[in-house]
Amino acid sequence: MEKGAKDLPLRTRSQQVQVKEEHVEHVPENANQAEDIPRVKEEQVEQYPEHTKEAEDIPSWITKAVRIEITKSKDEFDEVGYHALGPEVHLPFHPAIPVDDLPRYPQPTIFARLGKLLGLGALWDVYQAEIYPDEEYEDEKCIKVFIKYTDCKDFDDESYYGNNYVTTLNLETALTGVKLEHEIYTQTFRDLQGTVIPKHYGTFIDIDDKSCAMIIEDVGTQLGAEGTVGHVAPEDKEKIQMIFEIIHSKKVLHGGARHAEFYKAANGEVKITDFHIATPDAPDFQLAWEKYEVKRVCGLVKRMSYRDFVNNFNENEQTKHAFETDVKAEKPLKRIKAND
Questions:
Q1: In this prediction, what percent of the chain has a pLDDT beyond 70?
Q2: 142 and 280 share one domain
Q3: Does residue 55 share a domain with residue 161?
Q4: In sequence order, which residues have a C-beta less than 8 Å from that of residue 306 and are 6 or more positions away?
Q5: Which of 171, 187, 218 is the last residue in one of the domains?
Q6: What is the pTM of this model?
Q7: In whole angstroms, how far apart are CA 10 and each of 104, 140, 161?
Q8: How confident is the model at residue 126, as a pLDDT?
Q9: Known InterPro entries for this protein (predicted)?
Q10: 86: pLDDT confidence band, cut at 50, 70 and 90?
Q11: Does 169 lie in the same domain as 48?
Q12: What is the chain's percent helix, strand, coil content, to nearest 5?
């Protein structure tokens, strides 16, 4: 089985999930070599989306890595020591890959150097970082990224309050949030990577101590300075609305509309991050409410009471239903003949 297929969903090592040949990246072309790939019965196979072109510009030393080494100088370590990030943290790549299938030595490794701490979130601490394929740390091989780090065992039913939600984090809910965000990047929004969301370079989990690291594209600087998207430039508000239109078209509720979730690159591109409290397959009402909230904090619609919003939503749904019913009841159009 090929190592480091980056788009496989997270699984624990104990599950020993194996994947069919056609769902694995870089399957050997030689038929005899392919015969050595472990096989499982059809009913035991988990189905995953096939690899698509959005990862073609990601170097193979990233997609094939099975662990990451994060280093930080001792002086800088003191700044984040309370969050259990040591001078060196070794995190294996995809726990879905059985231990026996991993190369013994050397293991493909991403070498990371942490830089500036960008923010402390409910689940993740986010850092600017540089990653390299080896310990030579050569500038020409450097890729600038963001590294999101969390130690899930640190959480003890702590509550975090957002715009319209309360998140209670413990070991179970923190790991669930990591897994959800990984799946949003690599499955639900995989076709959006590099456009309205950052490229995802890998999620690493240490199953023993429950520390997690996620590597994503460096997407610039945070938007706004006052805590909400209402404090950004008008042109950026338009981009934010467009982003929500796109993610809502996939029936995903983001769950937050703060500036911390939006980043702007030097070329003007705006991207959204942080999906650990997202709701896939969200109801239309929740999507409509989030859309209204974004427009309201951007100053594009007037504030309305929750009751008025519900009434407007119900009226719109009734109108939509009536329109769809009328369309279905109409007689089919007569085909126009050439001699008509």
A1: 62
A2: no
A3: yes
A4: none
A5: 218
A6: 0.71
A7: 22, 31, 27
A8: 92
A9: Kinase-like_dom_sf (IPR011009)
A10: low
A11: yes
A12: 35, 20, 45
